[in-house]
Task: structure prediction
Amino acid sequence: MTTPHPLPIQGTPWPELERELADAAKNDVAWRRGRAPMFIHYAGDDVLDVAKQAYEMYFSENGLGLRAFGSLQKFESEVVAMGLDLLHGGDGTRGAMTTGGTESIMLAVKAARDHAREQRGIDPGSARIVLPYSAHPAFDKAAHFLGLTTVRIPLRADFTADPVAMAAAITPDTVLMVGSAPAYPHGVMDPIGEIAGAASAHGIWMHVDACVGGYIAPFAQKLGLPVAPFDFAVPGVTSISADLHKYGYAAKGASTLFFRDAEHFRHMGYAFDRWPRGQYYTHTLVGTRAGGAIAAAWAVMRYLGEAGYLRITERILATRRALEAGLAPLGLHALGRPELSILAYGSPAHDIAALSRGLMTRGWLVGNVTAPPGIHMMLNLTHEPVVGEYVRDVAAALADAPAAGAEPVIARY
Result:
């Protein structure tokens, strides 16, 4: 419960506020020391400085008013164009920036719902989304607010989506099928081609949630890793969400939502004119958008270029492999076959809850996977220098933890 608190009678000088701001963060997670397994996407102080400076230059500008701020229109259109190029877009593909992955997903669901109502006459009240058990909760949030029903399908033994079971769950009211690239819980890539094939055969919209992978998977592919096609190179993929403030390393509130063609893209927006002010239109859920986030995304993408993204991607993938190699002698193995920046690990031989507590007492923020029990890490460059320290603390925490009881063996791939 929050007690009402009055404004100070007199304003507070900035030096005092600065001290209070710094003091308030004293107990925050030490993310610069690699202690945060989520929330932060760090690519170096130079990249952070570019994002900060670009954001500050457009701090007051409003992305709602692109007629007023042609600069932001230029930045957004170029960010979208660069994203589409990475994801094998063509002349007809379209897209826009949003404030984050949840908004991108919500707008993709909204677009699929409206398209199905217009083209197939499906009542939104009976519309269904078929998605894997591992899909992000943002789809359920979108369904809740938009009046749809989600149908979550069990995963295969390797924790990837089961396209056969998903296809069997299709009904005449199915308006959307979903695959993840990668899925957040285990970091594995869903079989996008098979899901898209099933969706296309039934005339259903297929969305790829690449909020995590959209700005790292293309560079992993360029580095020669066998990451399966997941974007517009796959026939049947209708829309893709990809977060710039994750592995695009942009300032937070920046994501992108892309569509295969203008026909599908037009369902993203919202128009209204039945009020005294006249026409109101946005591509996005929100009205006002931080101009700084748009400018920072453009600046970071231009600053890094392909060479910069390739260099950072290579280091992050090497960090994941180093962690896997360090944890394996302790009897801890990846859940499934991670291909990018997410590592979820566990073992039926260890008490994962006790391990988590042991890591937290040693200063590490811990993210957990519940099915099966495991520890979750979404890696960035802050983790690169602390791999050895982390593995040593895992070993120490295991030594303090009781052995787990007999459990079914987790399939590993």
Notes: Residues 305-400 form a domain with the Aspartate Aminotransferase, domain 1 fold (CATH 3.90.1150.10). The chain has twelve helices and 13 strands. Confidence is low (pLDDT under 50) at residues 406-413. The longest strand covers residues 174-180.
